[in-house]
């Protein structure tokens, strides 16, 4: 009976938020963050906001910041900005405090509710309030500083990462920001890295005529993740498959790199699906062609659909009006297809640029920011209607 050849495991990780085996185009951000940890409290990059459309590697960058912090022996708390995230950070910080404290402090052992983690406490007639995020973090840094002094070691800090930052949780973000500003003023070894799509983050950064209290966000280091140079994409594809003994033909590697458009998530999708079609130890052009078609379909499901869902109906109409063109769209044509005047269309142009769904090209022209958005929209019936009529109802 003939033996079945061993099947190699696919080295690509086409899952949103998962760090790929070879990270392309983000070295400068990681170097800056590493330097900020070395430089000490007050370094600008210790408080950073990562923005960009879906699929450009925001969560992956947070993962890498966590790896850098752990390499410095720092504590790491990773959270998502959903309801109650301050309480979850507080609980995690309390667990860290338990790990490093020789004896829990009395004001902590009086905790009730979410912080009652199976600790036996003595009955007391005095009022013992539930600790706040600020009080727990203050205690954590105090205990860690004492431990560092006893051991004669470099200060051990804390990195908090917050994914999916969103203005819908403004009140909790204000509370969190107030706590972080206090810790920064006290020169504690604290770092915070946050990430979110532009439309969800922009209202948090607005001055709002002085009424917006989230000043720590406006002063933060801003990282705008974007496309990766094609040369670096090529290297990443080649290095990833080399780890499992698979190579590319030169023509296939060029075609795959070009097909990604430098879009980080597409790098993994094209690589993953091309790898599934490999023959022997080499990925050839046919494998890449088949892989690109599969990758485009998956991109629509995982990136385009949720990106469009975040937009208003008129935003989507604007994008659909663009899809009639084979390249950059002229604003006057978009307005005509929508049946609106240039000023009205211009307002939505600004909204979509801010959301990083489109980008200006030549004067009076715009193009899609996400790769294959045009093809995705063309596959929907709304585009056919757009082609037949010179206007589009709101």
TrEMBL record:
<dbReference type="InterPro" id="IPR041664">
    <property type="entry name" value="AAA_16"/>
</dbReference>
<dbReference type="GO" id="GO:0005524">
    <property type="term" value="F:ATP binding"/>
</dbReference>
<feature type="domain" description="Orc1-like AAA ATPase">
    <location>
        <begin position="23"/>
        <end position="168"/>
    </location>
</feature>
<keyword id="KW-0547">Nucleotide-binding</keyword>
<dbReference type="InterPro" id="IPR027417">
    <property type="entry name" value="P-loop_NTPase"/>
</dbReference>
<dbReference type="Pfam" id="PF13191">
    <property type="entry name" value="AAA_16"/>
</dbReference>
<keyword id="KW-0067">ATP-binding</keyword>
<protein>
    <submittedName>
        <fullName>ATP-binding protein</fullName>
    </submittedName>
</protein>
């Amino acid at each position: 009976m003939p033996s079945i050849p061993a099947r190699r495991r696919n080295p690509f990780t086409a899952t949103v938020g998962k760090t790929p085996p070879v990270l392309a185009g983000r070295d400068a951000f990681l170097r800056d963050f590493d330097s900020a940890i070395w430089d000490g409290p007050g370094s600008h990059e210790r408080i950073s906001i990562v923005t960009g459309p879906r699929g450009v590697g925001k969560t992956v960058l947070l993962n890498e910041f966590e790896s850098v912090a752990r390499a410095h022996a720092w504590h790491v708390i990773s959270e998502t900005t959903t309801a109650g995230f301050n309480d979850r950070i507080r609980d995690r910080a309390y667990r860290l405090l338990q790990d490093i404290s020789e004896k829990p402090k009395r004001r902590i052992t009086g905790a009730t509710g979410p912080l009652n983690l199976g600790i036996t406490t003595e009955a007391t007639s005095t009022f013992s309030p539930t600790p706040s995020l600020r009080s727990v973090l203050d205690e954590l840094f105090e205990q860690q500083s004492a431990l560092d002094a006893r051991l004669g070691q470099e200060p051990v800090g804390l990195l908090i990462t917050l994914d999916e930052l969103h203005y819908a949780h403004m009140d909790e973000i204000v509370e969190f920001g107030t706590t972080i500003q206090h810790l920064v003023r006290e020169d504690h070894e604290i770092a915070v890295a946050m990430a979110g799509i532009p439309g969800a983050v922009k209202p948090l950064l607005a001055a709002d005529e002085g009424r917006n209290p989230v000043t720590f966000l406006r002063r933060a280091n801003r990282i705008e993740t974007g496309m990766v140079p094609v040369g670096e994409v090529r290297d990443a594809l080649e290095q990833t498959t080399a780890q499992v003994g698979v190579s590319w033909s030169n023509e296939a590697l060029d075609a795959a790199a070009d097909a990604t458009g430098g879009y980080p998530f597409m790098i993994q999708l094209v690589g993953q699906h091309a790898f599934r079609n490999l023959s022997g130890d080499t990925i050839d052009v046919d494998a890449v062609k088949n892989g690109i078609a599969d990758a485009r379909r998956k991109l629509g499901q995982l990136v385009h659909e949720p990106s469009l869902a975040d937009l208003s109906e008129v935003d989507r109409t604007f994008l659909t009006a663009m899809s009639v063109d084979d390249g950059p769209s002229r604003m006057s044509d978009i307005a005509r297809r929508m049946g609106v005047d240039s000023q009205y269309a211009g307002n939505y142009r600004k909204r979509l640029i801010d959301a990083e769904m489109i980008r200006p090209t030549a004067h009076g022209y715009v193009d899609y920011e996400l790769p294959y958005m045009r093809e995705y929209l063309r596959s929907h019936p709304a585009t056919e209607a757009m082609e037949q009529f010179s206007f589009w109802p709101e």
